[in-house]
Amino acid sequence: MKLIFFAGVGIALSAALVAPASAQWQTSAGVGARSVTHTEYDLAGRRVVRERGWLPGVALGAAWQSGDLTWTAGIDGYRGDIDYRGQTQGGVRADSATSTTLASMQVGAAYALGRDVSALAALELDRWKRTIRPAGGSAGLRESYRSWRLVAGAAKDWRPAPGLVRADAALVLSEPERMRVDFSGMFDTASFDTRHGRGLRLGVSLNPAFARQLVFSARYDWMRIPRSADTPLTARGELWGMVAQPEHRRQSLTLTASAVF
Q1: Contacts by 228-234 with C-beta closer than 8 Å and gap 24+?
Q2: pTM of the model
């Protein structure tokens, strides 16, 4: 996956160096907010954890168009505290807060098929960090996740009187998340992989006729990641048991206002 990512970057940069006069560059910078919901389920399908809240953030993007092909690149980041509703290993309810950081980097391309319809494909690196504060007599956890995603779909443009409207839909395939868990010193740090995830992405944006330099967008993401395999839980090298990341589902609604240059 990494080789594919860097190959895409290399192709985009090479294309930029030999860009014809008709090629067009466009960049954007925006601010936004992301509503996130993270849920975890036990082996019986019962929900054991739910985290929910809004995170402020920023988004940067760039696009290079030549003929029917448009190369795109972007980065975004969101950070803040969200509510945590869960339970301890003993089944005792634990309400707390989670410090959450979300970041992603993406390179992709869009190809115009005609009639204002485009095919989309992109490669995305997703990073997620969560620090669950101590609650219910249990120690806090620090977790980090990293995964590569393949995004493929289509977009459709309309040009009504209010301005340019675009809607898009895509399937998202994720490699296993590379996960690292710090148990606040109670146990040794554990590292393991989850399983492949699948999801859906829907988006809509408006470039108003009265302000061509502005774009307002909304995006919904949903992804399901199956339960990971068990990995040893140790303390100073001594085996205490096994640990696993439960099946979890990630949902988000992202609202962004961007300036286009």
Answers
A1: 228/176, 228/179, 228/192, 228/193, 228/194, 228/195, 229/192, 229/193, 229/195, 231/190, 231/191, 231/192, 232/190, 233/187, 233/188, 233/190, 234/187, 234/188
A2: 0.87
